[in-house]
Amino acid sequence: MTSKKNNNDNKSLFLYTSLIFIVAILLIIIAFFGQTNMQKSQPPVMAEETSQPSNNGITERASVLSEENRVLLEEKTRLENELKEKEEIIAGLKKENTLLNEQIETNNLLMQANGYLSAGNMEMAAEKLNLVKYDSLTSDQQIIYNKVKNKLDK
Predict the structure, then answer these.
(1) Are 132 and 110 spatial neighbours (Cβ–Cβ below 8 Å)?
(2) Is the dihedral of CA 124, 125, 126, 131 positive or negative?
(3) What DSSP line would sit under 99-120, residue for residue?
(4) Which helix or strand (DSSP H or E) is residue 5 part of?
(5) CB atoms within 10 A of CB 149
(6) Range with the largest mean pLDDT of 3-12, 23-32, 116-125
(7) How far is CA 68 from CA 43, 59, 63, 65, in A?
(8) Whole-number pLDDT of residue 3
(9) Neighbour tally for 71: CB within 10 Å
């Protein structure tokens, strides 16, 4: 009975040992692929960093970074100035657009007043003409306004 029990203990010990061995092999394989994956995800190493380190390596790298920083700051300043110029242009265009929309509205009112006058509807023509602000008219619009006003006054 002791030999059978000892044999079962050996089998059990063998199973535990083989299980530990298999787990160790799996951990080694996982670690290998993990390391390979990590190396692929790392950014490439620059050639100057892999070259022989010199005594002034850190200060040379710092001066290169300082120069790159200066160039980037100049680019930032240039882009900010360009942005300000474009914002000023946009503001001017918006103002011009507003003025043109007002002119279009005035032209539409003058055209409607002239249309009502041509159709013989004096009331609507006078109503549309009263909506027009004479001070804001261009010289061409003032000519049309005066002609429509003179026809209405007759």
Answers:
(1) yes
(2) positive
(3) HHHHHHHHHHHHHHHHHHHHHT
(4) helix 2-41
(5) 16
(6) 23-32
(7) 19, 14, 9, 5
(8) 60
(9) 10
The DSSP element (H or E) to which 84 belongs, if any, is: helix 57-119
- Which DSSP symbol is given to 134? G
Virtual torsion, Cα 142, 146, 152, 154, nearest 10 deg: 180
- Work out the burial of residue 88: count CB atoms within 10 Å of its CB; fewer than 13 is exposed, 13-18 middle, 19 or more buried: exposed
Name 48's Cβ contacts closer than 8 Å, sequence gap at least 6: 61
Burial 120-139 (b: 16+ CB within 10 A, else e): eeeeebbebbeebeeeebee
Q: Hey, is 53 helix, strand or coil?
A: coil
| C-alpha–C-alpha distance, residues 68 and 62, integer Å | 10
Helix 57-119 / helix 139-153 crossing angle, nearest 10 deg: 20
Burial class (CB in 10 A: 0-12, 13-18, 19+), 113: buried
Long-range contacts of 118-123, Cβ-Cβ distance < 8 Å, separation of 24 or more: 122/152
pTM value is: 0.49
